[in-house]
Each structure stands twice: as C-alpha cells, then as structure tokens.
Design brief:
Strand order of the largest sheet: 3-2-1-8-7-4-5-6
Number of strands: 14
Helix content: 55-70%
Structural class: alpha+beta
Distance between the termini: 55 Å
Radius of gyration: 39 Å
Number of helices: 15
Length: 563
C-alpha cells in the first residue's frame, strides 16, 4: 500500500506519542511494584521481572523510533499492529498474575484502547475494546474458579467492566466525529473547479458538493452579480437541480434587513411562521422576523442553516435545509461553505466577463470584415442590376423584376448595416420594434421569392431580453428561407407568441416536408443529426428547445425560448 509523505509523517508522530506514553506507564508501574510488591506474594518476583522486561522493551522501541526514524518507512506498516497485540498480551498476563479483575494494572487496558483509537480511529477502538473485554471476561471466569466467590471482588469487576465499555463508547464516538470532520475537510479540498465547463453545469456541481459537505438534502443559492439587472437563483435537491432569474423586487429582502450579514438557523419544519435563530458571538439567539415567502416555498424541509456571501462581484445568500443528521458545528461549516460558493460564483462571473470581452472583440472583427467585404460587394451588385434594368427599356417585365431585386438588395443592405452596428460598440442601431422588424422581413422575403408569407406576432407587455429579441428575426428568417429553398411550398405561416415565462415560434408550410417523417423533439434532432443544424444550434445557444413535425402535407418547426 502506498502512503503519502504526509500520512507517513502523521503515523510516525502518533507512534512517538504512544512510545513515550508506554515508557512513562511502564516506568511508573515498575516503581509502584518496587515500592509495594503486587499480590499474591508468590507472583511478586515474576510481576517485577515482567515490568523490568516491559520497561526495557518500551525504552528500546521508543529509542529506535526517535533515533532511527523506523516509522517513516512504509515497510514498517505492520509494526504498530504487532506492538498493539504485544501490549494487550502483556496486560492480560500481568493482570492474571495479580488477581485478575482486582488487579491494580487495569489501566493498561485503557492504554490499549487509546492506542487503538490513535492508530486506526473508531474502528481500531471497537476491535481493541472487543478483544480486551473478551479477555477480561475470560479472566474473570477463571478467577472465580481459582479464588472462589468469597475472594472474588464482584463489585470492582462490575465497575471496571462498565468503565471499559463506557470508555470504548466515548472513544468510538470521538473517532467517528474526527472521521466526519476529516471527511468534510477533504470534501472542501476537492471543491469543484469553476472553469472549463458550461456555467449552468458548474453551478449544479457546486450546489451538490456544498449540500454533501453540510449534510443537507436541499440547497438554494440566491445572488446578484456585477451589473446584471436580474437576481439569479440556483437550487439542488436529490431529485435534480434548476436555475432561474428574477427581478430584484420579487425576492428581496431574503431575510429581515437587520439580519443580512448574520448566519440564520431554524429548527424543525421551515414555514412562514418558523422562529429564526441568529448566530452571533458563538451564541444562538431567537429573533423576530421571517424569511421571504418565495424563499420559504423553495426551501421547504426539516431544519435550516443560512449564511451570506460577498465578493467583489457577487453578493448573495445560501440556504441549506432538509438535514439528515445536523452537524454540531453547523454554524461555522455553513459560513465556510457559503464563502466557497461565493468565491466560485465570483470566478464564474469573471469567466463570463472574459468570454463576453473575447466575443465582443470577435464581433468587432466580423463587423469590420462584413463592412469592408460583403457590404461593398452588395453595393456593386446593386449598381450593376440598376444599369441592366435601365438598358432594358423595351422589356418592362424583366426591368420591373430587376428593380424589385435591386430593392430587396437595398433592404438587405440596410439590415446588414444594422447588424454590423449591433456587433460593434458604436454605429447605427435598429430602433424599430420586434413586430416592425418581423413585418419588414416579411416584405423583403415577398420581394425576393414572390411567395405569400404571413407573420403573426402576439406578446404580453413584458420586454424580452435583448439577446432573445435580437435573435428572433434571424431565426424566423432562416426557418422561412429553409422552407422556401427545400420544400417548394405555396405558402408559409409564422406565429410568434410570447408569454410570461416563454416565447414560442411556429413556422409551418404546405410543402413536401423534410426528408424524414414524423415528430422529432429537440434531443432526437441532436442525436439523429437531421433538420437544420444551424437553426438547432442557435436555439440551443439561447437555452431553448426545437421540434420538427414533417409529413407529405408539409412541415411544422416549433422553437420555444425561456424568457
């Protein structure tokens, strides 16, 4: 078995402590036997000799460890077990020679218990207790036969038996407690990285890891980052995780204003009427006030521990609930984990900002290339078409068709200029409403394709996120052109309907449909690699879902975006 340098060093330190204790205990016992020889008298010389041998053994073993560093070698891993068994055997022989259960050297059994706890934790304590208790019982049974009930001290036997069991129980508890603390520290050391993966996935991993450290079945984090207008909420439970965004007024204040910087606990089932305990100066005090009703609905469970976190870019609070076995150190543990969550969210915020900066620089480069390349080429094509149309005065039909194409190109140039302006930090921007841009696009498509296209737009008064509003005309345009190019329909209908939580776009036609037949949901489209890939990627980038239903009578493309 390979051991790290730290584990070898820790084991060596434990063995040094045990060796020193063994020397002290053996020397004190030898001195006691010399001052007052043990009973019965016929074994006094044997007991004295055993102590001399044990003192020499203890001094020799301790000197070997301190001088030669034997315990720093992984090959010496079996020596602790050998010395542990030797200590128990010595204690058993010594007590047997000095009236067994009444022996004054019962303390050696306690020494063995402590050695087992130091070396192997609570499991070592348990096995050592079983071995010593069994030895003690066998010794007592043998002494009853040899001494008789009159000489056998039953009261001392009962007290020492119980003392042995109680000592073992306390050491097992302390060992398990230490193992749990060590596990929590190890889990903190294995905190998930905040980069290298999708932000939503990283947040979900952080929430799950934090819940495991605290021992909670559910965790909810609420925070606002930088200059973002919305408040972010992430939740994890055994059934899965989810994330959402809300306006600040919907959730704040999360806790009473005077408790914004305090760690809060709640005992029992969390509800709107639950009494809150605030942790300050190492004490818990009941306080007035209650949690925000929306938060109570999110964290319904048994018990609550909540702590704030704040960094340069992120400020919020985490709520742990539904505890299986609340830890006694829940307050400091919650505060440490909350700070870790805040630091991770801060790193995510920095990573997102860096990606936005990189994307902005890339958009500026693309805008420059479009302006200097495609836009200038379109201008030249328009001039050529206009010249050809003017020369065809005797062909009015052809001339009108060319002028229509030239007007469509002019509209496309205008849209391209607005698109370029949206990519860069300055320049012209389209101030038209989404409905106006959709209708302008419909007219442009009608000029280019000479085919009836209808677009119906219905949405509530809530404004759409900028990135969604900017993407909708591009998505609708791509879906319509795909139908016109590949399905040869006689009509195309578009319905854009926005609700409070989602926006739904449906593009249907009466053409010949896609190469496949039937209904394909979002995951099936990704797995089978059918349908318009660029449109699917655009919808996925916005966190939406797309489905396609295709038949010989036409097709229906549905895109759903969360807002």
């Amino acid at each position: 078995m390979e051991l790290s340098s730290e584990s070898i060093s820790s084991r060596a330190e434990r063995e040094r402590v045990i060796a020193a204790a063994r020397v002290v205990l053996a020397s004190a016992s030898l001195f006691a036997v010399w001052m007052d020889p043990a009973e019965p008298a016929r074994y006094a010389d044997t007991v004295y000799l055993l102590h001399l041998v044990y003192v020499a053994y203890a001094l020799g073993l301790g000197g070997l460890m301190w001088a030669a560093g034997t315990w720093r070698r992984p090959s010496s891993a079996h020596l602790p077990l050998a010395t542990h068994v030797g200590d128990i055997v010595f204690v058993s022989v010594l007590q047997y020679l000095t009236l067994g259960p009444s022996s004054p050297f019962f303390l050696y059994f306690q020494f063995s218990l402590f050695c087992g706890a130091l070396r192997w934790g609570w499991k070592g304590t348990l096995w050592t207790a079983a071995a010593t208790f069994l030895t003690y019982m066998l010794m007592a049974a043998s002494m009853i036969r040899s001494l008789g009930p009159e000489q056998f001290e039953l009261d001392r036997f009962i007290v020492r038996s119980v003392y042995l069991l109680v000592s073992a129980g306390i050491l097992v508890y302390l060992g398990r407690y230490e193992a749990r603390l060590r596990g929590e520290i190890e889990r903190l050391a294995r905190w998930p990285l905040s980069t290298g993966a999708e932000s939503a996935r990283v947040v979900d991993q952080i929430m799950e890891h934090a819940a495991g450290i605290v021992g909670a079945g559910r965790v909810v984090a609420v925070w606002d980052a930088g200059e973002e207008p919305d408040v972010s909420v992430a939740s994890w439970a055994q059934s899965g995780g989810w994330a959402s965004h809300h306006a600040p007024g919907v959730l704040y204040p999360l806790v009473p204003t005077e408790l914004e910087d305090a760690t809060i606990l709640c005992i029992g089932r969390v509800s709107n009427d639950s009494a809150l305990l605030v942790a300050r100066d190492g004490r818990l005090r009941e306080t007035a006030g209650s949690l925000h009703p929306r938060i109570v609905g999110m964290i319904a469970g048994d018990g609550l521990a909540s702590a704030p976190f704040k960094t340069d870019r992120v400020c919020g609070r985490v709520f742990f609930t539904d505890f299986n076995q609340p830890a006694s150190e829940i307050v400091p543990l919650t505060e440490v984990v909350a700070r870790q969550i805040g630091a991770s969210l801060d790193q995510l915020c920095v990573a997102d900002q860096m990606r936005e900066i990189a994307a902005g620089e890339e958009r500026i480069r693309v805008a420059r290339d479009l302006h200097d390349g495609v836009l200038q080429s379109l201008t030249g094509i328009r001039l050529e078409i206009r010249a050809v149309a003017a020369a065809l005065a005797e062909e009015p039909g052809v001339r009108d068709r060319l002028f229509a194409i030239e007007r469509a190109l002019a509209i496309e140039q205008r849209e391209l200029r607005f698109f370029i302006g949206g990519l860069g930090p300055g320049g012209p921007r389209d101030e038209a409403s989404l409905e106006g841009r959709l209708h302008a696009m419909r007219e442009r498509i009608a000029l280019e394709w000479k085919l009836p296209v209808t677009i119906r737009y219905a949405a509530d008064s809530a404004p759409l996120p900028e990135r969604v509003e900017r993407a909708i005309p591009l998505m609708v345009h791509e879906a319509i052109v795909n139908a016109l190019k590949h399905a040869q329909p006689s009509r195309v209908a578009v319905n854009v309907h926005g609700g409070a939580q989602e926006l739904r776009i449906v593009v249907s036609d009466d053409g010949r449909g896609f190469p496949f037949r039937g209904l394909y949901e979002h995951d099936a489209l990704r797995a089978s690699n059918v349908g318009p890939k660029s449109l699917l990627d655009r919808v996925s980038a916005l966190g939406g879902k797309m489905s396609i239903e295709s038949s010989e009578a036409g097709s229906r493309v549905e895109m759903v975006l969360a807002i």
